[in-house]
Structure formats: structure tokens, C-alpha cells
Amino acid sequence: MDSLFSVLIPLSLLAVAVVLFLGLWNMMRGGSANRSQKLMRLRVLFQFCAVLLLIVGAWLARG
């Protein structure tokens, strides 16, 4: 189970970083505000998943 979390946590953090970069890139080049908003909402969802994985991983590791 630990190896699963050692893969999922970095992947979730990478997903957050990629979506953040795409949203910022869209804003910097003057892209659609609607698309930036959707990307930032997706980033928040990915951040929630990443934090949840970190909490569950820490909880399982202590036991």
C-alpha cells in the first residue's frame, strides 16, 4: 500500500502543477477568461485530491 501512495502522491502534485501552469499560461497570453476559470477550478479539485491522499497516506503509515 505504501508503494501505491509513493506513486499517487507525486502524480497528484504534478497534476496540480500542470493545471496551474496551464491556467497561468492562458491568462498571460490573454486567452479566454472562461477557460482560465475552468482550469483554476480543476486545480482546486486536484489540490483537494492531493491533500486527501497525503492525509490518508500519513494515517496509514502511522499504523
Unreliable spans are: none
Q: Count the strands?
A: 0
- Individual helix count: 2
Rg estimate, integer Å? 14 Å
Which geometry do the CA atoms define?
elongated
Number of domains: 1
Q: Which band does the percent of strand residues land in?
A: under 5%
Global structural class? mainly alpha
Q: Give the averaged pLDDT, no decimals.
A: 92
Main sheet attributes: strand count, strand direction, barrel closure: none
Helical percentage: over 70%
In short:
With 63 residues, the chain is mainly alpha-helical. It has two helices and no strands.
Structure explained in plain terms:
It contains two helices and no strands. The chain is elongated and about 50 Å long. It has one domain (2-62). It is mainly alpha-helical and 63 residues long. The model has no long low-confidence stretch (mean pLDDT 92).
Question: What descriptive keywords fit this protein?
Answer:
mainly alpha, 2 helices, single chain, 63 residues
What does the secondary structure layout of this molecule look like, with pairings?
Blueprint: H1 2-28, H2 33-62
